[in-house]
Design brief:
Pfam families: Glyco_hydro_3. With about 950 residues, the protein is an alpha/beta fold. Helices cover about 40% and strands about 20% of the residues. The chain has 4 domains: about 30-105 and about 120-385, Glycoside hydrolase, family 3, N-terminal domain (TIM Barrel, Alpha-Beta Barrel), CATH 3.20.20; about 400-600, Glycoside hydrolase family 3 C-terminal domain (Rossmann fold), CATH 3.40.50.1700; about 610-755, 3-Layer(aba) Sandwich (Aminopeptidase), CATH 3.40.630; about 765-940, Aminopeptidase (3-Layer(aba) Sandwich), CATH 3.40.630.30. It is built from 35 helices and 32 strands. Strands 20, 21, 22, 23, 24, 25, 26, 27, 28, 29, 30, 31 and 32 form a 13-stranded mixed β-sheet that branches. It has a 6-stranded mixed β-sheet with strand order 14-19-18-17-15-16, sandwiched between helices. α7 runs parallel beside α8, α8 (about 185-200) runs parallel beside α10 and α21 runs parallel beside α24 (about 570-580).
Length: about 950
C-alpha cells in the first residue's frame, strides 16, 4: 500500500512529457488508479482515482464507503444519496484531485433500478417496454427524465443504454433489459435514450459489447457464456446498434465478459482481449471514447483467471477503466496486480497516458467542481416529480400490449358480471431486491453468482408483494370478489382445480416462462382445463399476462388472450389493471420480429395516403430524412445523406426538355404534422418511375409502405401512353434502385417489393463509385498508352453548342431520366461539361459522360455530391454503347473526368450511375464502390388496377 508513490515516481522518469503529469498538481499516484475503476460495492457505482487520495484522507473516504453500505443506499431517500455523493466529491476536492470523481449508476428502469425513492425518483418502463410504446420520442423523454434525476443527486454517468440485440430472444437472460431483436429498432431507441441522457448532463456507457444478445450457456456458473456467431453475422446484426451509437457520439463502452468462439476469433473473455477491444471496437468500429471492462468479480472471470491477472489483461487489451463491484479486498488485489504489471513492463507509461486523456475528456463533458460540490438535490427533484410522474403513467399506458384477444374478453368490465368470480394465479418468484446491495447485506459478503450477473433484475418489492398488491387492485377496480393464489413447480394442485371451477374468468401471470418451464406447463394445463370446461357449457375466460419477456406465449395460439407488460413493478401492474378494465385502450406494439408475426399486422392496414404539399410537409420530410440517416450503418453514406425536401421536386427543370409529370405522396400524422412515410413518382415520356419510397423505421411493418406503394403504382399505371414501370431513378438520382450496400437489408427490401408485385429476377445493377484522396491518385501503369493506341478523340464541351449530337446519343442509349440529366448539365455551362468520345473512323459519338463541380445546381438532385466529402467533383452517367472497345472508351472518359476534377482541386471524385458491366473496368482504375443499387422494371400490366384500390 505505502510504496505506491515510489512506484509511480519511478514511472514518471526524467525525460517523459512532463506537461501532462505536472498539470495533475500532485505526485502522479493516480497513474495506477486513473484506469482502475474502484467500484462502490453497491449498485456498480464507478469511482475511479480512489487510490490517489493522500493517506491522511484515505480513512475518511473509507468511512464514507462504510456509511454507504450501512445505510443501504438504494433503499434510502434521494437526500441520502445526494449527501453521500457530495461527501465523496468533497473528500476528493480537499485531497487535491484536479477534477471531480466520476460516479456512475445502473438505472435501466423496468426491473433494474439501483436508486429508488417513492417521493422523488420515478419508475419508468424497461427498454423493451419503452420500445413497445412505438415512440422514440418517449424513449428520449424517459431517458432525459432519468438523467435529470440522477444528475440532481450528483451522479454524472449512467451505465446505459443497453444496445444488445436479442438475436435468440426467447432464451436470452437479458430479456426486457434489451429493446428487442431488430438491430435497426435497437439502434433507434438506444440512440434516442443516449441523447436523452446527454441532454440531461450525464455521460453514457453503451453495453454489453460485442453482445449479450445470443449467448450459449454450456454448463455451471463457472463456465463462461459463449458467442458462437461469426464476425460477419455479428456485423450484420449485433454490432449494428453499437456502430450507430458510436457514430452518434457514445461516450463510453462496457465490454462484456463473455467468450467468443468462431472461425475467425477464439477469445476466452471479451473484455480481456485486444482482438475485441483494440481491433474490433476501436479500429473496426472507430470508437475513441472510454472503454470499461465487465466486472472482474463475476465467477466466470475471477475463477478462471483471477482478479490480479485479469486487471492487467484488461488494461493490456485496451480497457481504460476496470470494473470491480463489491469487495474492497478484491479492489486492493487488482491495484497490486496493476502495480506489478507496470513494474514488469507489461503496461507502458504511454498506455496509461492514453487512458488518462480519455478519462479527463470524459469528465470534461459531465462535471466540474462547481457542479460536483453543489448537487441540485431534492428541492430540484421535487419540482421535476409531477411532470415525471405524468410521463411515467403515459409511458406505461402506451407500453401495455395486447398481442391476441381471440374471444374478445377485454375489457373485463364488458365480459365479467359483478356476481362472477375472478381468479388470479401468480408464480412464486424469488424476491427481487431493491438492489444488489440489499442481497449483499442479507447474504453477507461474497461474489455475485452467475445468476445474479446474467439475470440482473431489481424491483421495489418482492414478486409476491407486487402480485398481492395486483390482486388488491383488481378487486378494488371491479368492486367485487377476487380469488388469488400462487402456483409453483408442483403444477396444478387440487386447490387450483377447485378455484378454476368456481371462477368465470382466470388471469394467469407468467414471468420468463421460457426459462421457468414450470410456468409454461402450468399455463398450458390450465388452458386445456378451461377449454374443456367451456366446451361443457361452463364460462371460463382465460387471460394470460406476461409480466416480463413477451416471448413466453407469443407464438402459442392456444393462448387466445395474451397481454404483455414488459416488467412487474407496481407502476406496470397499476397500468395493467386499468387496461384490463378498459380505462384506456392498450396500443403497445411487440418488439422486432414479434410485431411482424402478428396476424393482425399481416392483414394489411390501409393508411390514408395524401398528396405531397410543400408548405405543409416540407419540415416533416426534412425530419424524416434525418431519421433515416441515423439508422444507416456508420462509415457508409446513406442514399438520403445530403438530400433536402427540394431534392425530390423537379419542376420541369430543363428549359428544352420534354414535360415531366411528378406526383409525390405522404402518410402523415395530421395532428403533429410528422411524416410516417414518403414516396416520389415521375412520368417521363412513356416511363413511370418510383424514385423513392421510405418509411420511418419506428413505423415499419405497419403497412405504411404498402399503402404508399399502392397509391404510387395506381397513379402511374393510369398515365396515358405508359409502357414501362421502373423502380429507381437517375433524376433525381437519390435511389437508383433498391439499395444493396447492406446486403441483409437489401435482401429484405427485395422480398418486400417481390411481395408487392415486382419481378426481382432480372435487375439492372447500378453503382456509385468514388476515389478518395484524389490528389494522390495516379492512373494505372499502361492506361494512357492503351487509350492513345485506339486513337479515339476525346473533347470537352460546355453549353448548348454541339449539344444535339450528344442528346441524340443519350436518347438512343439511355433512359429518359438520364437524357433529362444531360439537358440540365448542358444548360449549366458554369459548373458542368460533357466529355465526348468520337470514333476515329467517322467521328460518330461512341461515349459521353457529364463532369461537374460540387456547386452545380445538379447537386440538389444528386445529394451524393454533397455527402461524399467537403470538395467533391462529379463524373455522372457515362453512356457507352456496347462494342469491342467499350471498356477503353469508358476508361478514357473517366480519365478526363478525373483530370478535370483534380484541376478544380476536388479532394474526392464521385462517379454516379455506373452500369454493372462497367463496374469492374472502373475498379481497375482505382475507384471504390460507394453504393450499389438494383433497378427493377416491369410492364404496367403486371399490376391490376382494380386490386390497387
Amino acid at each position: 500500500m505505502e510504496d505506491t508513490g515510489a512506484l509511480t515516481d519511478d514511472l514518471t522518469g526524467q525525460s517523459g512529457p512532463a506537461s501532462l503529469w505536472d498539470s495533475m498538481e500532485q505526485k502522479p499516484q493516480r497513474i495506477v488508479s486513473c484506469i482502475l475503476n474502484v467500484g462502490l460495492s453497491l449498485s456498480k457505482w464507478t469511482i475511479e482515482e480512489r487510490r490517489t487520495v493522500p493517506l491522511a484522507c484515505r480513512t475518511k473516504l473509507s468511512q464514507a464507503f462504510e456509511k454507504c453500505w450501512a445505510q443501504q443506499l438504494t433503499s434510502t431517500a434521494a437526500q441520502q444519496t445526494a449527501s453521500l455523493v457530495q461527501e465523496l466529491q468533497t473528500i476528493a476536492h480537499n485531497s487535491g484531485h484536479p477534477v471531480p470523481l466520476l460516479i456512475a449508476l445502473d438505472q435501466e428502469n423496468g426491473g433494474v433500478n439501483s436508486l429508488f425513492d417513492d417521493d422523488y425518483i420515478c419508475q419508468f418502463p424497461s427498454a423493451m417496454g419503452v420500445a413497445a410504446t412505438g415512440s422514440p420520442e418517449i424513449a428520449y423523454e424517459v431517458a432525459n427524465a432519468t438523467g435529470k434525476e440522477l444528475n440532481a443527486v450528483g451522479i454524472n454517468m449512467i451505465m446505459g443504454p443497453v444496445l444488445d440485440v436479442l438475436t435468440n430472444a426467447r432464451y436470452q437472460p437479458l430479456g426486457v433489459r434489451a429493446t428487442g431483436d431488430d438491430p435497426q429498432e435497437v439502434s433507434q431507441y438506444g440512440i434516442a435514450a443516449m441523447n436523452g441522457y446527454k441532454d440531461a448532463g450525464i455521460v453514457t456507457c453503451g453495453k454489453h459489447f460485442p453482445s449479450y444478445g445470443n449467448l450459449d450457456f454450456l454448463g455451471s456458473s463457472l463456465d463462461m457464456p459463449i458467442i458462437t456467431e461469426t464476425l460477419e453475422q455479428l456485423s450484420l446484426g449485433a454490432l449494428v446498434p453499437f456502430r450507430n451509437a458510436i457514430r452518434e457520439g457514445l461516450d463510453a463502452m462496457m465490454v462484456g465478459g463473455c467468450a467468443i468462439a468462431n472461425a475467425g476469433m477464439n477469445v476466452m473473455h471479451a473484455c480481456l482481449s485486444d482482438q475485441v477491444v483494440d481491433d474490433l471496437l476501436r479500429n473496426d468500429l472507430g470508437f475513441n471514447g472510454v472503454t470499461i471492462s465487465e466486472c472482474l468479480e463475476m465467477d466466470a472471470l475471477s475463477h478462471d483467471i483471477g482478479v490480479r491477472g485479469g486487471t492487467v489483461m484488461a488494461v493490456e487489451a485496451g480497457c481504460d477503466l476496470v470494473l470491480l463491484c463489491r469487495s474492497f479486498t478484491v479492489q486492493l488485489e487488482a491495484i497490486s496486480g496493476l502495480k506489478l504489471g507496470i513494474e514488469n513492463g507489461m503496461i507502458s507509461r504511454e498506455r496509461i497516458q492514453i487512458s488518462l486523456r480519455r478519462m479527463l475528456n470524459l469528465k470534461s463533458k459531465c462535471t466540474s467542481w462547481e457542479k460536483a460540490l453543489n448537487p441540485e438535490g431534492v428541492n430540484y427533484l421535487a419540482t421535476l416529480h409531477p411532470g415525471h410522474l405524468a410521463l411515467s403513467t403515459k409511458a406505461y399506458d402506451k407500453s401495455i400490449t395486447i398481442m391476441r384477444d381471440k374471444g374478445h374478453l377485454l375489457p373485463l368490465s364488458n365480459t365479467l358480471y359483478p356476481d362472477e368470480e375472478l381468479l388470479l394465479l401468480t408464480p412464486l418468484v424469488k424476491p427481487l431486491p431493491a438492489s444488489a446491495a440489499t442481497k449483499a447485506v442479507a447474504d453477507g459478503p461474497g461474489i455475485p453468482s452467475e445468476h445474479d450477473k446474467w439475470v440482473h433484475r431489481s424491483s421495489i418489492m418482492s414478486g409476491e408483494g407486487v402480485f398481492r398488491e395486483l390482486g388488491r387492485s383488481l378487486a378494488r377496480q371491479r368492486h367485487g370478489k377476487l380469488l388469488h393464489t400462487s402456483y409453483t413447480a408442483n403444477g396444478v394442485r387440487p386447490v387450483h382445480e377447485n378455484l378454476i371451477n368456481r371462477a368465470a374468468a382466470i388471469i394467469i401471470i407468467t414471468a420468463d416462462a421460457n426459462r421457468n418451464l414450470y410456468q409454461n406447463g402450468f399455463t398450458k394445463h390450465v388452458a386445456m382445463m378451461c377449454s374443456m370446461l367451456s366446451a361443457g357449457g361452463k364460462k371460463k375466460s382465460l387471460i394470460v399476462v406476461s409480466v416480463s419477456s413477451p416471448y413466453d406465449f407469443a407464438m402459442d395460439k392456444a393462448i387466445g388472450t395474451y397481454v404483455c407488460t414488459f416488467d412487474f413493478t407496481e407502476t406496470a401492474m397499476s397500468a395493467l389493471v386499468r387496461a384490463l378494465f378498459g380505462e384506456f385502450i392498450p396500443q403497445g406494439t411487440l418488439p422486432g420480429t414479434l410485431r411482424k408475426s402478428r396476424k393482425v399486422q399481416k392483414s394489411r392496414q390501409h393508411w390514408l395516403v395524401e398528396s405531397w404539399n410543400r408548405d405543409r410537409d416540407h419540415r416533416g420530410l426534412l425530419a424524416l430524412i434525418k431519421t433515416m440517416e441515423k439508422t444507416s450503418p456508420p462509415n457508409q453514406i446513406c442514399a438520403l445523406s445530403g438530400a433536402t425536401a427540394g431534392s425530390f421536386e423537379l419542376f420541369n427543370p430543363s428549359e428544352s426538355g420534354e414535360p415531366i409529370e411528378e406526383s409525390h405522396y405522404v402518410v402523415r400524422n395530421s395532428s403533429t404534422q410528422a411524416l410516417f412515410g414518403f414516396c416520389s413518382t415521375y412520368f417521363y415520356a412513356s416511363t413511370g418511375m418510383i424514385g423513392s419510397l421510405f418509411v420511418d423505421p419506428a413505423k415499419r411493418n405497419l403497412s405504411i409502405g404498402h399503402s404508399l406503394h399502392q397509391r404510387a403504382v395506381r397513379g402511374l399505371v393510369q398515365k396515358p401512353g405508359i409502357k414501362k414501370l421502373q423502380l429507381g431513378s437517375g433524376l433525381p438520382g437519390i435511389y437508383l434502385g433498391i439499395p444493396m450496400s447492406d446486403l441483409s437489408e437489401g435482401a429484405r427490401l427485395k422480398r418486400w417489393f417481390a411481395n408487392n408485385g415486382w419481378d426481382i429476377l432480372g435487375p439492372r445493377l447500378l453503382y456509385t463509385l468514388t476515389i478518395r484522396n484524389l490528389s494522390h491518385w495516379q492512373p494505372p501503369e499502361g492506361l494512357l498508352q492503351s487509350i492513345q493506341r485506339v486513337s479515339f478523340a476525346f473533347d470537352l464541351i460546355h453549353g448548348s453548342e454541339n449539344s444535339e449530337t450528344v442528346l441524340e446519343h443519350v436518347r438512343c442509349n439511355a433512359g429518359p431520366e438520364v437524357l433529362e440529366l444531360y439537358r440540365l448539365a448542358l444548360e449549366d455551362h458554369k459548373a458542368c461539361g460533357i466529355v465526348r468520345a468520337k470514333s476515329p473512323v467517322d467521328g460518330a459519338l461512341v461515349g459521353t459522360v457529364i463532369i461537374c463541380r460540387q456547386e452545380t445546381p445538379l447537386a440538389t438532385y444528386l445529394p451524393v455530391l454533397q455527402a461524399a466529402g467537403d470538395t467533391v467533383g462529379g463524373i455522372l452517367a457515362p453512356v457507352v454503347p456496347s462494342s469491342p472497345q467499350a471498356a477503353i472508351v469508358l476508361q478514357g472518359l473517366a480519365l478526363l473526368g478525373i483530370r478535370q476534377n483534380k484541376a478544380h482541386r476536388a479532394s474526392t471524385c464521385v462517379l454516379n450511375w455506373v452500369a454493372g458491366e462497367e463496374r469492374d473496368t472502373l475498379l481497375g482504375m482505382g475507384f471504390d464502390v460507394l453504393d450499389a443499387f438494383e433497378e427493377l422494371s416491369c410492364s404496367p400490366e403486371t399490376f391490376n388496377v382494380a386490386s390497387l384500390g
